[in-house]
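Objective 1.3, modelling of assemblies. Example input:
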Amino acid sequence: MNLAKLRPSARLLPVLASLGVLILLYAGGCLMFENFGSLRVLINLFGDNAFLGVAAVGATFVILSGGIDLSVGAVVAFTGVLIASLIGHGQPPLLAIGLALGFGAGFGALMGALIHLYALPPFLVTLGGMFLARGLAFVVHPESLSIDHPFYGEFISQTLSVPVSRRLAIPFTAFALIAVVLAGTALARWSRFGRNVLALGSSESSARLMGVPIGSTKILVYTLGGFLSALGGVVATFYMQSGNPASFVGLELDAIAAAVIGGTLLRGGVGYIPGTLVGVLILGLIQTLVIFQGTLNSWWTRIAVGGLLFVFIVLQQLTSRRRDG
Amino acid sequence: MSAPVLVCRGLTKRFPGVVALDGVDFCARGGEVHALMGENGAGKSTLIKALTGVHPRDAGEAEVDGRPVHPRSPREAEAAGISTVYQEVNLIPDLSVAENICLGRQRTRLGFIRWGDARTRARAALARLGLELDVDRTLSECSIAIQQLVAIARATDIDARVLILDEPTSSLDAGEVAQLFTVVRRLRDRGLAIVFVSHFLDQVYALADRITVLRNGRLVGEFPVAELPRLQLVAHMMGRSVDEVEALRHRERPAAAPGEPLLSTRGLALRHAVLPLDLELRRGEVLGLGGLLGSGRTEVARLLFGLDRADAGETRLEGRPVTFHSPADAMRAGLALTPEDRKTQAILPNLTVRENLIVALQARRGLWKQIPRAEQDRLVADFTRALGIKTSGPEQLIRNLSGGNQQKVILARWLATEPRLLILDEPTRGIDVGAQADIERLLARLRDEGLAIVFICADTAELSRNSQRIAVLRDHAKVAELTGPDVNEQAVMRAIARETAA
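Predicted structure (tokens):
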């Protein structure tokens, strides 16, 4: 075994640092509050943040390709309302979910095609996508719409969850999150598509001369982003048992924050899908800590995330500068 | 004579308003290095891009081993056996060496990339070039020379028949060039047809077996190296007679007539960049800054111009102490700097020639006092004529000019501010012989007009040809100052070498 290989590369440092922060936050919570270390808190951490995690994996892919997706929150909301409305009109839930996923993928593909074919900045195209999806969500149904169907009531929340004790079960959403993170990791690390995405994000002109299919990779990565946003929306309906056109405003920014805290460079080309999971769990833990503390206003979650983000982007800058020097 | 591998007949490529390539014939043979020469804008890059599928050609034929090829993308060109290493390293900085060699050709099992196989293949490709590297290293951590060799390893990892090297040496130092040439000769001996594009005549004569010269998109001719003296080659490239070129080369160096000192430094230093430095810059004199790559020449320029703040020593302007806190301060005092990296530090690629030209003057006058359009147009017309800038008009985008013409616009940008001290960092790097001669002539004229000039140049011949005094740097310190008869190539080399031996 080569000792040099055991030394973490400068690249991995931000991810290891965020893993350290995650462990510190968890240990700190356990020391400060009774019951914080209970299995229930841990399971809820995964279950409650699953929709954000699923969407954040998609956002990470888009960022890795050198782009950005601002439509995440709007697509999640639209998907939720669409499913709730379709089920409300008597459609079978699986058809509703399938249509929602198809919409998400198609919507992403459309934005990707605009970005590629007209060489438009992703920021503007997905900003347009954000307004469009948010507006369409209100067209589908102008207010919150609860889902009342045995598929949701029993199948998802009971049949598909795994009981660990009499009063505690791991919800299906937690498994969905783990599955998406694993699949995303495999796609980024072991597929040609994933490597092309990283190459594209690192240097588009080089990637083109090296024979990377720029157009299809770009369109596909936004398709994947849209699909995972929609899947995030589906997971959110499992969790909330409703759809609301006004919900998840700014979720895309949480997703971007999670990716960056997890070691993904916003300029593209460098990042890790498991890091994004760590980022999502850090956001979730901060929220849990604020709730446990009890007297703090919930805005303190935002303040803590903001501070953390500052620390991490400075850290990334320092580690990448050391590499250049 | 070995068998032709790549044969082109009548290649033609038109761009709006120009015929970039006009019925060019070209033939590269197996086991030979074939140099493609010509001034910037002669059509070398277009020829290469037409062969590699970056620009589809408008007419003509190309064959590899007798099979017609019509690449529409670099990938198709590779499939036809034409591999290319482009001018700037075109690899992915954030990926590993192994991945850069195998990207797009990774072998998979059940759709999963076999990383072990990729590493093995990368090691094998590097071993064929006689290199041993840690293939897991991130590419951006490797030196430019190593990156260039990795690019060649990638290009030869496939079963290439033709290897095109488009100015692979422009950012390498002498030792790295030697290493690259060893690799290229090894590939040539394995029977590859190698097409080599370079501005450095020495390198062409050291490596090439045959030379094809292009001028203005047309073929001038194909010559065996042994039958083409340098002077004749330059004459072919410039479209002038040998006598004219001879006259240009042996221009008399005017005797130094040192004017009064303009700017002087005493003990000027910056940690990790410049050791305490005494310099005196005089009006009407070109001070050459010589030394190897990385000896601190650019760092000195940055200090003088206020881009970096010195942490010791003092600068005096006409005898009075001054401190430049920023380039804006330096500009107000009449300094100007054309940086080393034209593409990223000097030109504003998406702006026009006019906008690029007036930007420094506008900055000096202040943002609220816009230069009247009539004055802008007059400035552009004057400088275009005075410097011989070849452009289709003041509103052409600067990125569409050749390197030499871009450099002239940058010079004009600073001359428009009427500076007293001009610092030129590698003004002739990567530009063609004709533009280089123009810039050298301009240098002499500005000196005669009384400007103080700092001329930074890696080429010792060019440096001693154009300077009245030369300060030689080595390891961030001034190790010699040559004056009068000592201003010559040998003395510069000796100054560099003496310290190396010590």
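The radius of gyration of chain B is 24 Å.
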